[in-house]
């Protein structure tokens, strides 16, 4: 074979169709599923189209949590079908194929959540890749791969595989770390267990290897997620696995301690107030993981909590006080539902009193709405819509005042801030204004810190952790100036050119 013959195989060959569009809807847990599918697409040589015009087929990762999310998912499927005619639906709504087919009978395939292999099977059927002995030898480098070499997608541990996505949909400096899927609870307003099934925890080693690789690649903040993070490992009886030749239990306390040793920020989401969480708060007090807990409490009236069938409900205020004794820096985020069926004015007052007493740092609230198939739909005594809205406004007024008071306490302090983005306008020199977050702010949902870079203008990069003096505050955000730019020194060797900052 001459060189020309060889080249001809590439030049004259008609282009096969291999561009896949991807729409990712829903929560951070769904985002992790999207990352896994995108990683596998890249590994198998598919290209990711960034608009419908370029896409040969589209995958829609759907959300089915509440009625507006279902509608958004159905609309996205319709739009993708109109544009390309070939759509694979996956994710939570995919667990209810009849709902999708009723509105969109022409979708090519439907899978449930966590179904990377099924999705890939359908992609291969719709867009078969031509086998070419020359090009197939060349790996496709995933975004973020260093020097053209992709990290292995699967890595053996003593208990099965770790599936560590190398395609990330978050910026490099933070990543969601999913430690379990599904849920063993039966909250009456929620259909997640019906959609995603019972809890299935990953081995601690699998989670830790994924975290290690992320930190080695420049990730500075690990956001731990699952449906019920405090219940991690229950389903596998806290099974031991081996991480760096050491046994480690699939238990939240052990996992948090090990993650904390890597030197990145470790943030805990969806933690219920079980007794063992106290040990995790001790790790926060010792500076091992971030002093931050996202604890979805939903209500404070025992009657309403019973009707909601909430896990960990009980002496919530005592638990929060105890946590704060152990770790005074602790920032608590929570979400609540107002206007749950049967909620009286006195139940609502109980919730407001709890809010005043607990002085939670970050609070979100939603008016109750029926979710198809949820058990709560059968409860009597619905709260009229206007009363729900009026209670929501009263609730948010109290929450906003407390948030403003707590943020005002931070004025004058110097604190570490992780930089998420630049905020320059045309009058500024590049890199003069920045937006970041304190240790008490989770990406995407909490407040932000608006900063002047001062003498560090032009030197700070996205993902740097700087020291800043807080000069002002409002209801949700802080304002200040950078005073130092310390080196970042994780306990994980850094890959390639990443280091220092
Ligand atoms: S803990 Fe309750 S609200 Fe959360 S996923 Fe499980 S059933 Fe749903």
From TrEMBL:
SMART domains: Elp3. Residues 18-128 form the MTTase N-terminal domain. Binds 2 [4Fe-4S] clusters. One cluster is coordinated with 3 cysteines and an exchangeable S-adenosyl-L-methionine. It is found in: Cytoplasm. GO terms for molecular function: 4 iron, 4 sulfur cluster binding; aspartic acid methylthiotransferase activity; metal ion binding; protein methylthiotransferase activity. One of its GO terms (biological process) is tRNA modification. Its cofactor is [4Fe-4S] cluster. Residues 408-484 form the TRAM domain. This is Ribosomal protein uS12 methylthiotransferase RimO. It comes from Deinococcus detaillensis. The gene is rimO.
């Amino acid at each position: 074979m001459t060189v020309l013959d060889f080249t001809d195989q590439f030049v004259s060959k008609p282009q096969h169709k291999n561009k896949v569009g991807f729409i990712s809807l829903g929560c951070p847990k769904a985002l992790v599923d999207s990352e896994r599918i995108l990683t596998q697409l890249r590994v198998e040589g598919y290209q990711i189209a960034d608009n419908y015009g370029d896409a040969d087929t589209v995958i829609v990762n759907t959300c089915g949590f509440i009625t507006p999310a279902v509608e958004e998912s159905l609309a996205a499927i319709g739009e993708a079908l109109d544009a390309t005619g070939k759509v694979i639906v996956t994710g939570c709504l995919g667990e209810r194929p009849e709902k999708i087919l009723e509105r969109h009978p022409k979708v090519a395939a439907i899978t449930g959540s966590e179904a990377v292999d099924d999705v890939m099977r359908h992609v291969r059927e719709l867009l078969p890749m031509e086998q070419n002995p020359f090009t197939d030898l060349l790996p496709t480098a995933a975004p973020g791969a260093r020097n053209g070499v992709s990290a292995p997608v699967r890595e053996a541990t003593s208990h099965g595989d770790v599936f560590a996505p190398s395609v990330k949909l978050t910026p490099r400096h933070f990543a969601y770390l999913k430690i379990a899927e599904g849920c063993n609870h039966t909250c009456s307003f929620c259909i997640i267990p019906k959609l995603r099934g019972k809890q299935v925890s990953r081995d601690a080693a699998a989670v830790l290897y994924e975290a290690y690789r992320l930190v080695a690649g420049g990730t500075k903040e690990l956001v731990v997620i699952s449906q019920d993070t405090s219940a991690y490992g229950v389903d596998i009886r806290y099974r031991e696995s081996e991480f760096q030749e050491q046994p480690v239990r699939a238990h939240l306390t052990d996992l948090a301690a090990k993650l904390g040793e890597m030197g990145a920020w470790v943030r805990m989401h969806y933690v219920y107030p079980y007794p063992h969480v106290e040990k995790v708060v001790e790790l926060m007090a010792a500076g091992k993981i971030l002093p931050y807990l996202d604890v979805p409490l939903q209500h404070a009236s025992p009657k309403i909590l019973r009707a909601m069938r909430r896990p960990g409900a009980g002496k919530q205020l005592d638990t929060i006080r105890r946590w704060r004794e152990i770790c005074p820096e602790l920032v608590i985020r929570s979400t609540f539902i107002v206007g749950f069926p049967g909620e009286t004015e006195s139940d609502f007052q109980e919730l407001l009193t709890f809010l005043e007493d607990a002085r939670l740092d970050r609070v979100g609230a939603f008016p109750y709405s029926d979710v198809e198939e949820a058990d709560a739909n059968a409860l009597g005594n619905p709260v009229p819509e206007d009363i729900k809205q009026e209670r929501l406004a009263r609730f948010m007024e109290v929450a906003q005042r407390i948030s403003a008071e707590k943020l005002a306490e931070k004025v004058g302090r110097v604190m570490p801030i992780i930089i998420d983005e630049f905020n320059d306008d045309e009058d500024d020199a590049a890199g003069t204004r920045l937006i970041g977050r304190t240790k008490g702010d989770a990406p995407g949902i909490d407040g932000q810190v608006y900063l002047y870079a001062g003498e560090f203008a032009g030197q700070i990069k996205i993902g740097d952790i700087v020291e800043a003096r807080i000069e002002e505050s409002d209801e949700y955000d802080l304002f200040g100036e950078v005073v130092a730019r310390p080196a970042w020194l994780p306990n994980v060797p850094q890959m390639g050119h990443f280091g220092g900052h």
